[in-house]
Specification:
This protein is an alpha+beta fold. It has one domain (about 5-65). The chain has one helix at about 20-30, and strands spanning about 5-10, 10-15, 40-45, 50-55, 60-65. A three-stranded antiparallel β-sheet has the order 2-1-5, with no helix packed on it. It has a two-stranded antiparallel sheet with strand order 3-4. Strand 1 and strand 2 (about 10-15) form a beta hairpin. The mean pLDDT is about 95.
Length: about 70
């Protein structure tokens, strides 16, 4: 897999170097009942991406899309 693309708040972000299943499991584990919100580090932009932090809560809408590598 080349990267994982994310949609958050109508914008697109990405995460590199992570396994999709592990990434999804990590987010679910951090949202266990009673757990506080957390900041998820992602990248924004292409070519020279900027580190960006997304606030994740139990009600956050987040789409996760794997991008196959070549």
């Amino acid at each position: 897999m080349k990267r994982i693309d994310l949609r958050y708040g109508g914008e697109q972000y990405s995460v590199g170097g992570r396994d999709l299943a592990e990434f999804q499991s990590d987010i679910i584990a951090r949202l266990s009942p009673g757990a506080p919100p957390f900041w998820l580090e992602v990248n924004q932009g292409e070519g020279d991406p900027r580190p960006t932090f997304l606030l994740i809560t139990p009600s956050t809408e987040l789409a996760v899309m794997p991008v196959p590598g070549g």
